[in-house]
Amino acid sequence: MDTSTMLNPWASDQRPLGPYGLLIEQAELSGHLKKRRDRDIAMATDLAREQSPSLQLFQVLRQITAQRKELDKVNIEVQCRLQDKETSDITHLGTLENRIKQLNELSQHLQTVMQHKGQLKSRLQKPFVGEYLHFAAQYQRCVAEVFPMLAPILSDLQTNLDNIHWASSFSLDNGHLDQTLDELTASLAQVETGLQSLVQLRGSVSQMHRTSRSQQSTRRPKSKGR
């Protein structure tokens, strides 16, 4: 008997396979099915990952690393916001435009002063002449108390006069009042929306600051006792 033609029953590639076995083998070779060895290795790996404390520790460390990266991104963003706030007076266009406008107004004022320099000199060289209010000594204390009370009233006088002028020219004909109330309602709604946005922004910034401080406190090395 020729032994070269005999099949080795222990070799997986020489065992006689039925039609289903050949079909499965062809599917494994073509990649449509995973090989049983790969499947066993994957199952063993999953089982070891679930039961091995060291692998679980690696997963926890990987999660901690990812969270630290996110916190670093938040810290960088907070630092950028703080730096932007500190340098806003020289980097923001709106602030620069206001500064330029103030400088232009100051320059115009100085030019006006220089143009009327002669009048200012002549006025300053004249002695001060003014009209005074004469009160009896017994009423001077009352007058001293009244003038501080009149100061805020006089400061609001122009505003009150403007309100009186507006009320005299305001008309209730042709639905003017309804239109004004609608505009007032829309303005109040916009103000409320803006306030809510500011409150949310303030809460977010406070949360970011607390997160940054807690992260910095956890990163500080603890001093060892002597």
UniProtKB/TrEMBL annotation:
Residues 204-226 are annotated as: Disordered. GO terms for biological process: centrosome cycle; microtubule nucleation; spindle assembly. GO terms for cellular component: centrosome; HAUS complex; mitotic spindle microtubule. PANTHER family: HAUS AUGMIN-LIKE COMPLEX SUBUNIT 2. This is HAUS2 protein. It comes from Branchiostoma lanceolatum (Common lancelet).
